[in-house]
Design a protein that fits this description.
Elements (H helix, E strand, L loop, with lengths): L6 E6 L6 H6 L1 H8 L4 E8 L1 H17 L3 E6 L7 H21 L3 E5 H15 L2 E5 L4 H7 L8 H20 L2 E4 L2 H9 L11 E2 L16 H11 L7 E5 L8 H14 L4 E5 L4 H10 L7 E4 L6 H5 L4 E4 L13 H8 L4 E4 L5 H8 L2 E4 L4 H9 L1 H5 L3 H11 L2 H15 L1
Parallel strand pairs: 1-2, 1-4, 2-3, 4-5, 5-6, 6-7, 8-9, 8-11, 9-10, 11-12, 12-13
């Protein structure tokens, strides 16, 4: 079989039928495919999402010449299930490397990179360690690995050892943030003879998140269905309320905000249940009539965001989050909407300050809440076009694809 030097094995432990795969993997692969790279994509799919979206995703991949090898994600038992998945990852990947004489493997995050190390040792392929954050520290900071448990303590030490090995031996390393890159550089473990760590933030599809493409009619229909009045102040939150986001603190901010803006609503654009959000709101003293919950498809997220006066996200300011790049920040800015977020997470401070795209606060300081609320009228005057231009400069998908292509071209 005739092969091309531009064949790449791409391994993701996230599924392409999940929202994350659709927003943070597929757009890059499609962009790189247009630059002549042919991908063999291994991903791990969760059953419900796979059954619901496999035909749509398969069509997109086929149209872009991407060969897909979906495997089912194994959740239980903990640890053993991941080892089982890694073994399948290695088995399928080894077969593809041999069959297509693939010389480059792009490993998305740490689990995939463990397989990449095996390929490098056995076949001499070049590997890209696309970190996506400090994985082991994330598990500890998120309370998923309790270091008081000897098993998790051992697993943590294993991954920190492998992290150093990967940084030291990978042919290319990708960090989501300049802050994360600076931390990695301070460890002094990556030889100067290898490529420097490349920073590529979580980019946004700004062609999709574009307010100019939303009709007044579609906005009015959604406002009517959500019982939102024209001119009403709306704070929004976009995305899942998972391990890292701080819904209680956001609701506490909203309580203070409502004292100044009694007509305000809090719109959650999320797949979390309305019941769980209303229960949290009740615990924090927010009346249910102040809350709106909208389960938006990816296609409808921009319309829902367009209802926002400003958009809110608080992330736990822990060590591991210095390497995180919130996808939602670029998407919100792409819509020309100012953000209200906490400081100390990845490069969010830099982006907010450099592009005048919102306001920062300290989640542990109530006076910081009051300061932002006092300046909210100023925030409303931030020019939407200027905010969107900031997104184009920092979060542009096209620029992200070009940066990846630059790394690929050097390794090829």
């Amino acid at each position: 079989m005739e092969t091309s030097p531009k064949q790449v094995l791409y391994i993701s432990y996230d599924g392409m039928t999940d929202p994350l795969g659709q927003s943070q993997v597929l757009p890059y692969l499609i962009g790189l495919s247009k630059k002549g790279y042919h991908f063999h994509l291994i991903s791990f799919e969760k059953q419900h999402a796979y059954l619901e979206n496999k035909d749509k995703i398969n069509k997109i991949l086929q149209e872009n010449g991407i060969s897909w090898y979906p495997l089912n994600y194994t959740k239980n038992p903990p640890v053993l299930s991941t080892i089982y998945d890694i073994r399948r990852m290695i088995a399928v990947g080894s077969e593809l490397i041999n069959r297509f004489q693939i010389r480059m493997v792009h490993c998305r995050s740490y689990i995939s990179a463990l397989a990449g190390l095996q390929f490098k040792k056995k076949s001499g392929v070049r590997i890209i360690f696309d970190m996506r954050g400090f994985y082991a520290d994330e598990r500890v900071d998120g309370g998923l690995w309790k270091l008081s448990n000897p098993v998790y303590s051992m697993i943590y030490r294993y991954f920190k050892h492998k992290e150093k090995e990967l940084i030291r031996t990978a042919d290319a390393v990708i960090s989501l943030t300049e802050t994360g890159k600076n931390i990695i550089d301070s460890w002094n473990i990556r030889p100067a003879s290898l490529l420097p760590v490349t920073v590529i933030p979580c980019c946004a599809d700004l062609d999709h998140f574009d307010r100019s493409k939303i009709t007044d009619q579609s906005r009015e229909l959604l406002m009517k269905s959500l019982n939102i009045k024209s001119g009403q102040t709306v704070l929004s939150y976009l995305g899942a309320l998972g391990t890292w986001y701080m819904p209680k603190e956001m609701l506490r901010f909203f309580v203070k905000f409502s004292e100044r803006y009694p007509d305000a609503l809090f719109l959650f654009i999320t797949h979390d249940t309305e019941e769980s959000i209303l229960n949290m709101a009740k615990q924090e003293g927010v009346a249910p009539e102040k809350i709106r919950v909208y389960k938006a498809s990816r296609e409808n997220v921009p319309i829902a965001l367009s209802l926002s006066t400003a958009s809110l996200f608080f992330i736990k300011p822990v060590f591991s989050k210095k390497a995180s790049s919130p996808t939602k920040q670029g998407e919100i800015m792409g819509m020309g909407i100012p953000v209200i977020c906490n400081s100390g997470v990845g490069d969010t401070d830099l982006v907010v300050q450099k592009y005048r795209s919102g306001m920062l606060l300290n989640v542990e300081d109530p006076a910081s809440f009051a300061d932002v609320i006092d300046k909210f009228e100023q925030l409303k005057q931030f020019p939407p076009d200027q905010i969107r231009q900031g997104a184009n400069d920092f979060f542009s998908l096209e620029k992200g694809v070009l940066r990846y292509a630059g790394v690929y071209d050097k390794l090829i």
